[in-house]
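In this supplementary section we document a worked example of the pipeline. Step one takes a protein sequence of length 199 as its only input; no multiple sequence alignment statistics are reported here. Step two produces a three-dimensional model, which step three serialises into structure tokens for compact storage. The input and output of this example are shown verbatim.
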Amino acid sequence: MQNTEHPFPFESGNLALDLLNTARDPVSEVVDDLRTPKDLLAWLDASGLSRGPLLAQTSPTPPVTRTLLTEVQRLRDDIERLLVAHRTGEVIAPHVLYGINRVLEAGRASALLAVEEKGAWLVELEVGEGPLAVLAPIARAAADLVIATDPARVRRCASHPCSRWFVDTSKGGRRRWCSMATCGNRAKAAKHRQRLAAE
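The serialised model returned by step three reads:
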């Protein structure tokens, strides 16, 4: 169930999973948070990806944002196929690898040193050409999951109406909910109601 206070919860622990969580199938009805270019720009802004110079240059033109939306939806499908294959130990299909690598190749990372009175830090920039470069950090996050994350720790929420993806970073590896604040609390409340009804 979507949190109406924050339409794009970034609680999964990975940007690629956060993108996957924009399309869910809670109780047989697909929910897609990225139906329009406007939805996509709002998600990119919430994710922090809109702060780069590339998106600032490309977002005003409707043809570019429509193309970017198509690319994001394609990337989202490829990420899901990648993770399902990774979790089940199946061979990752060549067309899925091509889709992920195509986006990875579009981005080239660069950095600038920023200095203020309070201190200094690096500002990372995407300097790839074309709107596809904006999506490179998402593809990189998906690649990082396959490279460095135990497949058993990449899960879907145990709450029946939810189905959001998350990375279980808990010490014991027994996390069941995408968020304890939402799905976990709902499950606890339902269990408590059942106990009271049984008394």
